[in-house]
């Protein structure tokens, strides 16, 4: 089957900055500082500018960023870390790798974001951090989450892996909590030429701790002050990202206009009650990294779209509480929304190279299938 509407276009997204990225990589080959080159500090400065955070610490991946953030908070055995039940496994996995216990909490409908009421119920005397994910590009309700957390004296980490560039009122994603973590996985809003990530904070002491943790806990050469890891980003990865940053705001604008077009075209279908889409009153600030619809009989619809040359994906096919590796985790409440979303969610193509015609075609086909 010929693909008419591809789900993602990693090669196409690099095209306008490919030559510049290759020049930057070539410079790394000339200076030879493949680890810790000047590209890292330059990238960190630009990333801090995007989020408004005082400090950005570039690292090896979004998962590394989450683990480093938890290590900087001193999380370890016996501690609990609250994570949403409907997201990628990385926050739960990072807690487990440190010997802590993830506690799974339900999300809201129709936003798919951490439910602040359920969060408050889940807090125990062992809770040492709360991870709220800005899922599909849309910031979680940090006003409510930060206020609950500060009442209990618990630090908050924003998992901004999918939401770099998003805004919530006058603040930007990555800088919506005490610590923010993002990912530069190639299909993310700011996709890298390989793995990469960053941690953001306004706290100088935490930033210092993060830099030490990233480099084997070293305060000076071979002087290990704390437990760390090799969490570094390569200079080549940073050089490629610096080139990609040139087009970042343009790409973000295009994602936003595609998202708004989907919303407008899908609204009549939503009114029939046959389909819903992930949304919230803060949608205008979303980085629109995924466009998710919620419908019955997802597999048949995905098949119908595929037969028409339209690719889709399922993020995520199971709530975390159904993952074999997380069976022993404490669950708070019934986690019904996470289960429902995992059964019914379907992500439609959204990337800067998509044309309005492709969006129209996707919605048209979806409408026919949903109403058949
Ligand atoms: C919500 C979320 N958190 C964390 C990660 C982990 O990022 P990485 O793949 O860079 O380790 C991802 C990446 O898929 C993600 O989507």
The biggest beta sheet reads: 8 strands, mixed
Q: What is the total number of structural domains? A: 2
Oligomer: single chain
CATH topology of the largest domain: Aspartate Aminotransferase, domain 2
Give the CA-based shape: globular
Which molecules other than protein and nucleic acid are bound?
A: pyridoxal-5'-phosphate
Give me the strand/helix succession. Answer: HHHEHEHEHEHEEEEEHEEHHEEHEHEH
CATH superfamily of the largest domain: Type I PLP-dependent aspartate aminotransferase-like (Major domain)
Query: What Rg is obtained from the alpha carbons, in whole angstroms?
Result: 21 Å
Helix content: 40-55%
Figure out the total of helices. Answer: 13
Number of strands: 15
Active site: 188
GO biological process, one term: polysaccharide biosynthetic process
Modified residues (N6-(pyridoxal phosphate)lysine): 188
GO molecular function, one term: pyridoxal phosphate binding
Fold topology:
Layout: H1 10-14, H2 18-31, H3 38-51, E1 55-59, H4 62-72, E2 80-84, H5 90-97, E3 101-105, H6 116-122, E4 127-133, H7 142-152, E5 156-159, E6 167-168, E7 171-172, E8 179-183, E9 197-201, H8 204-214, E10 218-220, E11 223-224, H9 235-245, H10 248-271, E12 276-277, E13 291-294, H11 298-307, E14 330-331, H12 336-344, E15 345-348, H13 356-371
Parallel strand pairs: 2-3, 2-4, 3-14, 4-5, 5-8
Antiparallel strand pairs: 1-9, 6-7, 8-9, 10-11, 12-13, 13-15
Helix pairs in contact: 2-9, 3-9, 4-5, 4-8, 10-13
The structure holds pyridoxal-5'-phosphate.
Pyridoxal-5'-phosphate binds at residues 61-63, 87-88, 90, 133, 159, 161-162, 183, 185, 195, 197.
């Amino acid at each position: 089957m010929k693909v008419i509407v591809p789900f993602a276009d990693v090669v196409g997204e690099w095209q306008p900055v490919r030559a510049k990225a290759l020049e930057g990589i070539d410079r790394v080959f000339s200076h030879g500082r493949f680890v810790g080159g000047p590209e890292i500090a330059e990238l960190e400065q630009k990333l801090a500018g995007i989020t408004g955070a005082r400090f950005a610490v570039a690292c090896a991946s979004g998962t590394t960023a989450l683990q480093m953030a938890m290590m900087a908070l001193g999380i370890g055995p016996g501690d609990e870390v609250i994570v949403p039940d409907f997201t990628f496994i990385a926050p739960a996995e990072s807690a487990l790798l440190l010997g802590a216990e993830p506690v799974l909490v339900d999300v809201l409908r129709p936003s798919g974001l951490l439910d602040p009421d359920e969060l408050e119920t889940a807090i125990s005397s062992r809770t040492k951090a709360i991870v709220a994910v800005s899922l599909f590009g849309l910031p979680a309700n940090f006003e409510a989450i930060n206020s609950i957390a500060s009442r209990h004296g618990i630090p908050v980490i924003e998992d901004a892996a999918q939401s770099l560039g998003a805004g919530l009122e006058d603040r930007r994603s990555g800088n919506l909590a005490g610590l923010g973590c993002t990912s530069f996985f190639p299909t993310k809003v700011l996709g890298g030429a390989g793995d990469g990530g960053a941690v953001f904070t306004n706290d100088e002491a935490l930033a210092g701790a993060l830099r030490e943790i990233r480099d084997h806990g070293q305060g000076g050469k071979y002087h290990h002050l704390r437990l760390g890891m090799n969490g570094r980003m390569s200079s080549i990865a940073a050089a490629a990202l610096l080139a990609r940053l040139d087009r970042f705001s343009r790409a973000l604008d295009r994602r936003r206009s595609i998202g708004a077009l989907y919303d407008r075209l899908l609204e009549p279908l939503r009114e029939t009650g046959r389909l819903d889409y992930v949304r919230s009153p803060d949608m205008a600030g979303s980085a629109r990294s995924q466009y998710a619809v919620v419908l019955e009989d997802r597999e048949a619809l995905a098949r119908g779209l595929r037969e028409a040359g339209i690719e889709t994906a399922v993020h995520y096919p199971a709530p975390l509480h159904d993952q074999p590796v997380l069976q022993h985790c404490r669950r708070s409440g019934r986690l019904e929304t996470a289960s429902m979303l995992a059964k019914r969610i379907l992500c439609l193509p959204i990337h800067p190279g998509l044309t309005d015609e492709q969006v129209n075609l996707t919605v048209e086909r979806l409408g026919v299938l949903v109403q058949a």
